[in-house]
Amino acid sequence: MANSFTRMMSGRNTAVILASVGAGTLTSGYFLCDNTAAAERRKLYPPSADFPDLRKHNNCMAAALTPTIYGHLRDKTTSNNWTIDHCIQTGVDNPGHPFIKTVGMVAGDEESYELFAELFDPVIKDRHNGYDPRTMKHPTDLDASKITSGMFDERYVLSSRVRTGRSIRGLSLPPACSRSERREVERVCVTALSGLKGDLAGRYYSLREMSDREQQHLIDEHLLFDKPVSPLLTAAGMARDWPDARGIWHNNEKNFLIWINEEDHTRIISMEKGGNMKRVFERFCRGLKQVEHLIQERGWEFMWNERLGYILTCPSNLGTGLRAGVHVRLPMLSRDPRFKKILENLRLQKRGTGGVDSAATGDTVDISNLDRLGKSEVELVQLVVDGVNYLIECEKRLERGQDIKIPSPIPQFRK
Amino acid sequence: MPFGNTHNNFKLNYKVEDEFPDLSKHNNHMAKVLSKELYGKIRDRQTPSGFTLDDVIQTGVDNPGHPFIMTVGCVAGDEESYEVFKDLFDPIISDRHGGYKPTDKHKTDLNFENLKGGDDLDPNYVLSSRVRTGRSIKGFTLPPHNSRGERRGIEKLSVEALTSLDGEFKGKYYPLKSMTDAEQDQLINDHFLFDKPVSPLLTCAGMARDWPDGRGIMHNDNKTFLVWVNEEDHLRVISMQKGGNMREVFKRFCVGLQKIEEIFKKHGHGFMWNEHLGYILTCPSNLGTGLRGGVHVKLPKLSTHPKFDEILNRLRLQKRGTGGVDTASVGGVFDISNADRLGSSEVSQVQLVVDGVKLMVEMEKKLEKGEAIDSMIPAQK
């Protein structure tokens, strides 16, 4: 037991040191297992032979990937043997999505973002409205006390929710991780979570060991996540070995919830019925900080750097990884032709109440922040608070037969 | 570069217990054979192209069981897989192929003249006849593992070979990715078009990557000879026609296959074959002949007879629904084909189908007249 732990520790520490030293030491890359068969294959199949056919594709990766970039990156591997082909497989296999422009690539580990920066950086820029990882820094701010007017009119807002993800530094991400790494993620998180106290105290439900009764309870409470069926996720290898080392932790109040080893190492969710977004965010920040403290006590930490903020599997979730949103009734506004433009200028997005892959129908919509990177958590939540309050004002004005205004667009990043 | 779980050396830093998959709820051939000890013994191996044990078993880990059939739960990524991971494949092959031993030799016989009869199955009962097999091209890795460059190389070679055929085999190649709507509709109407695999048995093994790049269908002008390129195997070769003339179907099959093989050999890329396992294919269930010869046959009375399954068993035949392996029968029409693939030749497998179906049609006719069939029930073949 001690021997394997020491070996684990030393393996992790090496990875942590490597990761924190940063780009320079690793971009020279490791070449694939240097046996003659692999070298022969490289000669027989130059990058041009393997370049994917992306002519019918419409995702961020397809827009950014050129034969030149592919030629530079094809033979490189991270220290976990993750390659550019692994990163882009999901984007090659999924040309487009009916409702959203997908990213089309994933990271297999923290190093991916450095080693394959030549492709990740333009994709990040495209997805995050011009954020340039080469020149800009991402601000992190989890001080919930700064939020103002965070209590919504509950005749309109039915529920409030904030989610983000966190990755454990030193372990590969869901597309790449081996079974033992995934089980390690589960162990690290469950141990840390068992240290939470007070209103955050709760318990863990492993997907594999769940009883039928427990499963039904979690479904009834809308807490259970299921095996991914979206080809965006399965083509990236995130559903391998299901349901091994997957599970859900929630506190006794059921308003603080953590998913383990779904699309990211962890997804952290704070939610409640009603419109008290300030309280939801306050619990979110408090919970996050406590979990971080608990894993640090055992020598672990979250993946984070000042270029990209929190490192997650999908580039769309870099930075804060934060989606703060509400389910809100806007029967008149949602039918108004100006609705789309108002949302756009407020930097908000609408989804159906079934989440990202559902259509918005009926009176109730899911409204959340569009941005993730380049603005802090506090800024984004404030933006949602102000924006939703504005939408409710519009709805009230329309109810009274008054006219509404399209607000001026919110500026992008501070320089 | 070939795709796969290539960070094998990195995983070796973790203990066997930590990496061994949880197979406690699984029911497939791989799960029956793979113990923690065996996993520990062979997990540090990889084939020259980098295919590893985890690559072999991933589909079996992700798919614990299938409602109608006992699945194999593992695949090969290249010709060498069957050698490098012998310790896993040999017991699975034995279990799946009726006790076939590592020392056994497989006989190949594609001489259609050795088939006796087969041209007189009653078309009032036998609606259609079909023979299919697969072939893998030497020098390339298999669909779970190959890169886009390799897959395109396979397609290019295949197109050259197939479009050079003449006589009754003269036809056209339709690449999936540039098919027009009209062509697609026609191929669907002819029941020729294969679609992107949705079965998780195949997608979890990585065979649907980069779809539809490098995939296509060739068929002859008569629509009786058909080749699928880069679906579950490099090539799937199919000969079929309406009615019961299995002899003609098998002749076309053998002649066509041999012509194709000659052309590939001339280009220095013959088919993967060895004298122990016969033709090497992606799924161990298709080793040997890779041959499934079958008919769609109306057996409404016989199929409800209490001894139907036993009869099939003794005749070394299996039943499927008319939609193929994952379907149930409709309207008393069954797909009846050979159960065996490895350990007997193509000719003997088709002979079993021809003789067995002829007997079952006679049984059906007897049952129609209200007569008993007990005296007709055959001994175990």
TrEMBL record, chain A:
Stored InterPro entries: ATP-guanido_PTrfase, ATP-guanido_PTrfase_AS, ATP-guanido_PTrfase_cat, ATP-guanido_PTrfase_N, ATP-guanido_PTrfase_N_sf, Gln_synth/guanido_kin_cat_dom
Q: Which UniProt keywords apply?
A: ATP-binding, Kinase, Membrane, Mitochondrion, Mitochondrion inner membrane, Nucleotide-binding, Transferase, Transit peptide
Q: Molecular function (GO) terms listed?
A: ATP binding; creatine kinase activity
**Record GO biological process:** phosphocreatine biosynthetic process
Q: What is its EC number?
A: 2.7.3.2
Indicate the segments forming the Phosphagen kinase N-terminal domain, all copies. Answer: 43-129
Q: Where in the cell is it found?
A: Mitochondrion inner membrane
Gene3D superfamilies, alphabetized: ATP:guanido phosphotransferase, N-terminal domain, Glutamine synthetase/guanido kinase, catalytic domain
- Chief localization class? mitochondrion
Q: Which domain of life is it from?
A: Eukaryota
Domain Phosphagen kinase C-terminal: from-to ranges: 156-398
Q: Which residues bind ATP?
A: 159-163, 222, 267, 323-327, 351-356
Q: How does it sit in the membrane?
A: Peripheral membrane protein
Q: Name one GO cellular component term.
A: mitochondrial inner membrane
Q: What does this protein do?
A: Reversibly catalyzes the transfer of phosphate between ATP and various phosphogens (e.g. creatine phosphate). Creatine kinase isoenzymes play a central role in energy transduction in tissues with large, fluctuating energy demands, such as skeletal muscle, heart, brain and spermatozoa.
Q: Of which family is this protein a member?
A: Belongs to the ATP:guanido phosphotransferase family.
* Protein name (database record): Creatine kinase S-type, mitochondrial
TrEMBL record, chain B:
User: Kinase: present as a keyword of the record?
Assistant: yes
Instruction: Name the Pfam families on file.
Output: ATP-gua_Ptrans, ATP-gua_PtransN
Q: Which GO terms describe its biological process?
A: phosphocreatine biosynthetic process
Q: Which residues form the Phosphagen kinase C-terminal domain?
A: 125-367
GO cellular component terms given for this protein: extracellular space
State one molecular function term (GO).
creatine kinase activity
Q: What is this protein's record name?
A: creatine kinase
Which residues bind ATP per the record?
128-132, 191, 236, 292-296, 320-325
